[in-house]
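User: tokens in, sequence out, please.
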């Protein structure tokens, strides 16, 4: 998906405000969500912003910092995969379309 510079800057500003837990309107969230659904890099920006909002910036040298930098939902214990209870295909069910197609 090709974005104009103006759209990219608008999306980055909204994502920045999400990471700082500042006010973001529903209309802005829908706008970013629309692009995140079809663009993996915007999806990553959004996941990182939500992780930073929830957990703060994690140390770069820690495993939590790695998880956060990759945009993986792993800082919350309930998001961890449990091979005894979880089915791997169900666990990835909430992933963006571009991951599920792989």
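Assistant: Sequence out:
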């Amino acid at each position: 998906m090709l974005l104009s510079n103006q759209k990219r800057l608008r999306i980055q500003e909204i994502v920045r405000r999400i990471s700082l837990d500042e006010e973001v309107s529903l209309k802005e969230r829908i706008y970013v969500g629309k692009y995140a659904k079809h663009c993996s890099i915007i999806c990553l920006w959004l996941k990182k912003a939500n992780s930073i909002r929830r957990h703060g910036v994690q140390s770069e040298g820690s495993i939590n910092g790695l998880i956060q930098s990759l945009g993986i939902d792993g800082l919350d214990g309930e998001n961890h995969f449990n091979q005894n209870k979880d089915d791997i295909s169900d666990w990835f069910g909430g992933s963006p379309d571009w991951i599920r197609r792989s």
